[in-house]
Write a structure and sequence with these properties.
By secondary structure, the protein is α+β, with helices and mostly antiparallel strands. It folds into three domains: 93 residues, no CATH class; 76 residues; 60 residues. Helices cover 50% and strands 14% of the residues.
Length: 288
């Protein structure tokens, strides 16, 4: 009878990653890393305050490399990116073995929002400097992006004033009921009070916002920038994203995310932004 190796697929194994062997000369990671190396990350440093105390942070360059690389392998969610940062060789290489988690990425993107947008401008300049982008023909198009937001939490001034009045009335009654209840301890009562107070606070903020911004017909309680968007025959809570694309390279050279501006107004805005960008790029190129 033939003999076969009796192996256990669940057995823990350790492998040595030889990156030179894994990534041949034609692998896209080499070109990607050259672009990343050309970007200036100096502005990120002002957001850190650990020069004298605190542990060393993960380099912004490494984090950005991991955030941008999925463009080459197919856009993935941030949670999937965190999972792959432990498994995918390219991400392990770009992060030097550091592992990402969702809360860290979320905080990083909020902290460095302006600096990340500037990196986008830098990539456009690199493309223009190399002749990859020529601005001869620029196409403008848009799409509606669904927000991760509850549709019930979007409304106009009248709706939110009514809800605020209702929740204030309900809160007084509930507070009295909870105080008299023998089935609830102090911590439970405190948590329930806090929940109602937070809802009232959000409604108050929305009412103040709509009174101040007369141009906004409605607003979402938690996502100020989103609005009702018509996509096909349905309405969704989301954003109106516009992009200007250079036809030679198919690179996005300018973008904008709006709420309720008319399409014609958005088109004019993107044309103006693209013209201003071209003038700036010409000035920068001449200086170099």
């Amino acid at each position: 009878m033939a003999k076969f190796k009796n192996t256990d697929p669940n057995q823990l194994r350790m492998y040595v990653l030889e990156f030179k062997e894994l990534f041949g000369e034609e692998h896209p990671i080499h070109g990607f890393k050259k672009v990343i190396d050309r970007l200036d990350f100096e502005d990120f440093e002002k957001n850190y305050q650990n020069d004298e105390t605190g542990r060393p942070a993960i380099s912004p360059k490494k984090v950005i490399s991991a955030l941008f690389y999925p463009i080459l392998i197919g856009n993935i969610s941030m949670r999937e990116l965190c999972r792959l940062s432990k498994l995918r060789a390219e991400l392990i290489y770009l992060l030097d073995g550091e592992e990402l988690d969702h809360s860290f990425i979320s905080k990083f993107r909020k902290t460095h929002r302006t600096e990340i947008e500037d990196l986008f401008s830098q990539t456009v300049f690199l493309g223009y400097e190399s002749g990859y982008i020529d601005f001869e023909t620029v196409s403008i198009d848009g799409t509606k992006i669904k927000a991760n937001a509850n549709p019930d939490d979007i409304g106009d001034l009248e709706k939110f004033e009514l809800r605020l009045e209702q929740i204030e009335k309900v809160s007084k009654v509930k507070f009295q009921e909870w105080e008299k209840s023998a089935d609830m301890d102090r911590s439970q009562i405190r948590d329930k009070r806090k929940e109602l107070e937070l809802k009232a606070e959000k409604l108050q903020d929305a009412v103040k916002f709509l009174k101040k911004h007369k141009d906004r017909r409605r607003v979402h309680l938690y996502e100020r920038d989103c609005d009702l968007q018509k996509k096909g025959n349905v309405f969704l809570v989301g954003y109106n994203a516009q992009a200007a694309v250079d036809c030679k390279s198919n690179m996005i050279i300018s973008h904008s995310v709006e709420t309720n501006n008319p399409i014609l107004s958005l088109r004019k805005k993107m044309i103006t932004k693209s013209r201003i960008l071209l003038r700036i790029l010409k000035i920068r190129k001449n200086k170099i």
